[in-house]
Amino acid sequence: MSRLAVPKTYKLYIGGKFPRSESGRTFEVVSAKGAFLANAAKASRKDARDAVVAARAALGGWAGATAYNRGQVLYRIAELLEGRRAQFVDEIVHAEGVTASVAGAQVDEAIDRWVWYAGWTDKFAQVAGNANPVAGPYFNISVPEPTGVVAVIAPQGSSLLGFVSAVAPALVAGNTVVVVASERFPLSAISLSEVLATSDVPGGVVNILTGSPAEIAPWLASHSDVNAVDLVGAGDLDWVDLQIAAAETLKRVLPPENGADAAAPSLDRITAFTETKTVWHTKSLI
Q1: Number of structural domains, the chain?
Q2: Mean pLDDT, range 29-55, rounded to an integer
Q3: Is 4 among the domain residues?
Q4: Is 2 a domain residue?
Q5: Is residue 55 pLDDT above 60, yes or no?
Q6: Has residue 3 been placed in a domain?
Q7: Ramachandran angles phi, psi of 44, nearest 5°
Q8: What is the DSSP secondary structure assignment for residue 201, as one 8-state letter?
């Protein structure tokens, strides 16, 4: 006798918790063949605002953690992903309609990407910062610091790898993120939120919204408490208007054409959302 299917309705991930959308809206997630897979929450403007509030509240603790600690936290995510590899492979097979080997390669690359970026947390400052030569009895040192709250429009054509490739580098320097997952392939992002909730990542460091990027992105781009916007997955949106909205609140923006190859690990993606702080210190004359 066949069992009755139990359709799932997934929620958002905001502040380390799993709230429903305040609007009560959901949308159907379907497979590559059009079969129903699950219901996902359709985030609203209010949900986006709540996510920004959570990201701002978590910023001080995450940015203030040691680089070594952030690296260990990110590495732990990779460990948990490895433990749930079969689940992610299965989701990608159904969502993208690819073979198990192709899906497995994507998951393996996503895990490797977390490890790669985790390794940079206590190293990138030595590359991006420097001691500056000055004429006088002073030390002059430039160091990279996090930009703040970063809104990310994840790549829309990838279940997992694009999401990881956009989010992980922003976390390295101590930024917190509000990310809009792929509208077509949201299940891997939702499952990743469950990984984050059981990892050492403090609540609010990563906030995941599902739904329509076209609906949510304008509110994030114009939000005065968002410090930067990564439009890597906004190529199909009116991203010029998003840039204009971001400019009105003096945000740093990574446009789609500069981040098109989000799948490639890059130090530039870490430094894209850092600010340079220069410190002067008098040399002892003794």
Answers
A1: 1
A2: 96
A3: no
A4: no
A5: yes
A6: no
A7: -115, 180
A8: P
